[in-house]
Amino acid sequence: MTTLIKGARVLGGEPADLLLEDGRIAAVGRRLSVTGADVVDADGLVALPGLVDLHTHLREPGREDAETVETGSRAAALGGYTAVHAMANTDPVADTAGVVEQVWRLGRQAGLVDVVPVGAVTVGLRGERLAELGAMADSAARVRVFSDDGHCVADPALMRRALEYVKALDGVVAQHAEEPRLTVGAQMNEGDRSARLGLTGWPAAAEEAVIARDVLLAQHVGARLHVCHVSTAGSVEILRWAKSRGVQVTAEVTPHHLLLTEALAESYDPVFKVNPPLRTDEDVQALRQGLADGTVDAVATDHAPHAVEDKESEWAQARPGMLGLEQALPVVVEALVETGLLDWAGVADRMSVRPAAIGRLDGHGRPVAPGEPANLLLLDPAARAAVDPAALASRSRNSPYAGRELPGRVVATFLRGEATVLDGKAVR
Ligand SMILES: NC(=O)N[C@@H](CC(=O)O)C(=O)O
Ligand SMILES: [Zn+2]
Ligand SMILES: [Zn+2]
Predict the structure, then answer these.
(1) Which of 2, 98, 107, 343 qualifies as a FRET site for 237, CA 20 to 30 Å off?
(2) Does 29 share its domain with 119?
(3) Which helix (H) or strand (E) holds 383?
């Protein structure tokens, strides 16, 4: 199987031809020609390494009405992803080797992206005792990222033990930083607006206090810590401080926290309800700066599909979470590239290279260069389109970007040399 991509701008550089053969990039050069190859015209398109998501909710097993491994994989491929980490808050919870291997196998069957299961830190996400971390790491799924996402590992002694365990496995604890005692009944960012709208507030301190505690624990233990979906300016400051002291901490920010603010809660439309909540414009600016200067390592979608009955209700009853896979790159183009904060190499670093390194994935996050695995995407940076939730590949419809015009269209995605997306459409 041979594909010749004509005239792609690798990381936004000069146009070049890319020859994909046997799952690898065989050659990069000018005017390559090969007989019998499938030819893809990439005139005007930017080539980037396939994106890697550290934080995807695929809902299988348990809520296949909201998403399956296959539908979520298709949404990921359409977004330019070649690997996604599937969060553990399924039903049953991914807290055993059996469940993570099941998810891993479903991903292989779908064959659209590499589905990398995340293992739960604690049994049933209950925060009481550690799950079988070693067995999940040794399983066919080769788990390296462990998270109780959806819940915080709130007990500091348990968090310390989790960090000690993952250190021995070359793993990382991905913490959903939320002090539960400070967010009882919380609905939106705490501030003047929550008071005016009559919605219970989720204070920035509930996130920042856990991050501060955890970076100290990670330093004490000498283990790797990853912070999920950071959402406040104060969190960026704590991370900057921790990194300056050599703590092995990494962090991610979601597309929605890079673009949207708490002002959207004025609509009382639960499509904008998410955990952690949308914050203020100052937070958005600090998150963009933190991502640009590398304090925040990665963009991760926190793609959180929800069935209509769980989302289209009163604000207080609705589940938190929003879709992200199909619009993550366009949001980053709008918020970081068009504002001059990141160039294409920077986008590749924050959406592919660093997330692959954090997840210890080999074969992803590699340069677009001869000899490397042919995991890559082609983007038309000039295209602009309004988001139509009905046209999404996800099984759910809870996109916060409905009707919003965003720049950048993923034209093609290749997983080990095989097209998963062509002409902006999923190949299967
Ligand atoms: N982000 C959310 O609002 N929801 C996530 C859980 C989580 O990421 O905490 C979900 O699983 O729906
Ligand atoms: Zn979370
Ligand atoms: Zn999540």
Answers:
(1) 343
(2) no
(3) strand 376-386
